[in-house]
Amino acid sequence: MPTALTAVATPVENASYNLQRYYEEAGPDYAAWSPHFNMHFGFFRSGMNPFNREAMLEQMNLEVFERLQLNSHSRILDMGCGLGATLRSFARLLPAADLHGITLVLWQLEQGRLLNQSGPQSTNIALNLGDYEDTGFASESFDAVCAIESSCYGTGANKSRLIREAHRLLRPGGRFVVADGFLGPGNLRGSQKPIYRKLCECWVIENLGEVHAFTHEVQRGGFRDIAVEQIQSRVTPSVLHVPWVTLKFLLTSVAFGPRKMTHSAGTTSLLRSFYPSSAIPSAHSPITSSVQPASDPAHLVSLPI
């Protein structure tokens, strides 16, 4: 007797598909932001040239690197690694380190591997296709784990699955660093709500993390010594590059170039410039740090932008 089977995708499956589709369409556009595909904002320190965007993006990699407190042979995982730019930065600093990255996006994996082949210090980098909330790596197999502007794609406001997986993967004494945008305390008001929902829809984010919910979940997960730093002023100089990069991209790649204005291309150019100026409180602000009890002494440092 014929049987009809109907399957409905779960919200998590839909989110994963939308994320993959977005970055497959918009991924090449990030070259306009960073020739090395640093797919994040930068970190400005006194004495730096605020017009040198790539230097500020690399400085963010260095800030994360320093907070991970690595040694020459550390085993490191980048959760949501993009095309592996952060790992290539780490490889230049620690050529003998064992570097791993995981991404859901096949295009990122393929292009990242090609970029790794062009660097003599990238031979110790292994990029993997998979879900950072369920990596498949062995427990206690990494000395350090980081997530730069990728934790926002985790499940829920507290990103509990991401935190649990990072905790599972860390060896005793290991460290976890997160650099991302978080919502601060207080409810969104008035026009902030539709702006925020549109932002999440176009960037295929379920919701940004909430810094208090995140740090509470970190405590529940067994970490301790949590500290939160505000780095909004450090990030702002690179954010100010967005309008110029957006205009240049639209003129050279879309209006007078070969790039079609797909949904993702429009999102990348327009919303990336709109997001930093939107009035969402503390969307780019704190840094968090924590350590587990001595019986299970992993460490966490989180750098919400």
Architecture blueprint of SSEs:
Layout: H1 11-26, H2 53-68, E1 75-79, H3 85-93, E2 98-103, H4 106-117, E3 125-129, E4 142-148, H5 160-169, E5 170-180, E6 182-183, H6 192-202, E7 209-210, H7 211-220, E8 227-228, H8 232-239, H9 242-255, H10 263-277, E9 288-291, E10 299-304
Parallel strand pairs: 1-2, 1-4, 2-3, 4-5, 5-10, 6-7
Antiparallel strand pairs: 8-9, 9-10
Helix pairs in contact: 1-10, 9-10
Task: Output the keywords.
305 residues; alpha/beta; two-stranded parallel sheet; 10 strands; globular
What does this structure look like?
By secondary structure, the protein is an alpha/beta fold. It contains ten helices and ten strands. β6, α6 and β7 form a beta-alpha-beta unit. The longest helix has 16 residues. It is globular and about 45 Å long. About 11% of the residues have low confidence.
Give the SSE order as H and E letters.
HHEHEHEEHEEHEHEHHHEE
How are the strands of the largest sheet arranged? 3-2-1-4-5-10-9-8
- Structural shape: globular
- Characterize the largest beta sheet: strand count, sense, and whether it forms a barrel: 8 strands, mixed
Total number of β-strand segments?
10
Contiguous helical run count: 10
Q: Spans with pLDDT under 50 lasting ≥5 residues?
A: 263-287, 289-297
Q: What proportion of the residues form beta strands (DSSP E)?
A: 15-25%
Structural class: alpha/beta
CA-to-CA gap between the ends? 58 Å
